[in-house]
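Let's study a protein:

===
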Amino acid sequence: MSAVVRTVAPAASPSAVPPCGSRRAGPVPRWGSLVREAPELGAPARPVSDPAAGGRTLPGGPGSGGRGPRLARRAAGRSGARGSMRPATAADRGHMPGSGSGLALVRDFEGLGGEGVASRSAGRPEARHLVADPPGEGAQVASRGGRPRIGQVAALAGVSATTVSHALNGRRPVSEATRRRVLDAIDQLGYRPNVVARGLRAGRSLTIGLVIPDITDSFYPVLARGLQDVLGPAGYDEIVTNTNGERDLERHALDKMISRQVDGIAFAVFHTHPDDLRPVVDAGIPVVRLGGRRSLPGVDLVHSDDEGSAAEAARYLLRGGFRRIAFVCGPAAEGPAAERVAGYRAALAEAGVAVDRELIAHTEFSRAGGAQGVGRLLELPDPPDAVMCANDMMAIGAVDAARERGLRVPDDLAVMGFDDIEAASLVTPQLTTMANPAREIGRACARLLLERISGAVTGPPTEVIIPARLVRRQSA
């Protein structure tokens, strides 16, 4: 089974629509802009002033005459907490901001407020110390409370913080012996890399948004797993939002993704108007639509061959001698449902069978919806002898409706599903269905998003089509 990849002709002029994956400056600041505005490590910092104090320089800031440490000592004395104070070593400066010369004072307090803040409610908290041994004798770290830092890992492993970073991200070669020492130090300290800081340095948030209509539908967790198969090794996490198939929630989900400054969006819902995706495209965030055939400016598309798969399912039923074939789809024929209805119509026309509009039922994408839709069809004066359903949960509901009326499946009513979720092989009778490769769709989507983010793929939208396959079981 191989996917078909093709370029989609842009639906708008290049001047009106930015290339897929390009980042246009807008009202929402991106991670990269925050990094560019930050002073470089080691550069002289600007004095910190307090508008409430008439613009006077705050104690402890540059230009304050070094009053910061003295005031910190006074504050520590008032709160009853005392720590160690000594000249900073090279190991200390490995995890301290700045690299200027001179005497730097190290003072750590263990309390509720974090580093440098003493707790008034915890009595006399015990101080934390970073003790550096003489050169050549290694380093020992004694830490009680607080999260380990990369400088402590470097000190314990006897390497620089840069070497620790290279050993973790693999961007520069590190000897196996050095890498082993770094990993041992990480295990000993329980160190975890700061993903937010890494994202700031890279100018990215290292997150991908996944917008889905129904998290309880078994298709979508498998889809999410496929994305994670590719995103996880690349250092990305998913943020999943459920919309219940409501357009207002879909638009709100997109706004949230923009606010969270995700690096890309996988959009697996079908009610959204092209204008709803415009803010995402204008923000320069790569977006991949999962399902449907309608081309949107600046939006890539990954989907199964919904039209061809539905036509294949209808032909299978026609070969079995069925002629009153019904189709149970969602509330409105749009997205993949529209493509499947088109394939169903095409196969019937190809066989010379007239399409009866009464045999196309619109209902919810759920087991209850399938039961309701098929229940209405079975009340027709000339009921169907076979039913195609838009997904497997609707097909299970169709079997429920047949049984309630004393019908046998498939003898009295043949039922076909779509997706081949795990439950399709667990129900009785087992569902005949079209296997929709959810996990491979997720993987293809993730690969395309990463290519857009990295700039490996540019230009007009890309469409990736992944074929489905017939799975013959007992229900038809």
Observations:
- Confidence is low (pLDDT under 50) at residues 10-17, 23-144.
